[in-house]
Write a structure and sequence with these properties.
199 residues; mainly beta; nine-stranded antiparallel sheet; globular
């Protein structure tokens, strides 16, 4: 049913049988250095043993004006289950490709003293980025990320920062520095490194 948890146990983490389907549409004008276009992706996983349904959708748009490229992406997901389910089928947030300023997968499900999995059954997140072209293949970028793993109070976590976006033949190289907006003055921030786009 609805709520912020799924009953689960660690003993089931390596014994999952599921079927998976996905729809993907990419209309960006360049895979590595887009200045216009959009993309959409929807995935659906159906667990057979144990029984559960996991749905996730993503969408993003890119548009530009002169040297400035704006990118916005949204992501939402939900897991439905009334049976035992391992935490790895829940959602996580944090890190280079979701919530910069946080460690990879820092926000996610956890086990309580009864071995039940809490948090991470619902996902809402968004990222907004501004890239400023400095050279043909080199950009400065500024970003704002936000996300929540529960609909109970919509407890959003946010991160913001800046970085360098360098386009290579095998994909963009991103070097980014992000800070949590919670406890902004106390947080020392975190550097992220990635090869590939956020979307």
């Amino acid at each position: 049913g609805r709520g912020g948890y799924i009953a689960g146990g660690k003993d089931f983490e390596n014994n999952i049988v599921k079927v998976f389907s996905s729809l993907y549409l990419d209309r960006k004008n360049d895979p590595f250095d887009p200045s216009s276009g959009y993309f959409m992706n929807f995935s659906l996983a159906r667990g057979i043993s144990p029984y559960f349904t996991r749905a996730e959708g993503k969408a993003g748009v890119v548009f530009s004006f002169s040297r400035f490229v704006f990118e916005v992406m949204g992501r939402a997901g939900r897991v439905w289950s009334d049976v035992i389910l391992p935490g790895k089928e829940c959602f996580t947030l944090g890190g280079t490709n979701s919530l910069r300023g946080y460690n990879e997968g820092e926000l996610g499900p956890y086990y309580d003293t009864l071995n039940l999995v809490h948090y991470g059954t619902e996902l809402v997140s968004a990222s907004a980025m501004l890239r400023v072209r400095i050279l043909k293949k080199l950009h400065l970028e500024f970003f704002l990320d936000a996300g929540s793993l529960t609909s109970e109070g919509m407890d959003f976590h946010t991160g913001a920062g800046c970085g360098i976006y360098f386009v290579t033949p095998v994909g963009p190289i991103r070097v980014e520095y992000g800070k949590r907006l919670r406890d902004f003055e106390k947080d020392i921030g975190k550097f992220h490194f990635a090869i590939g786009r956020l979307f």
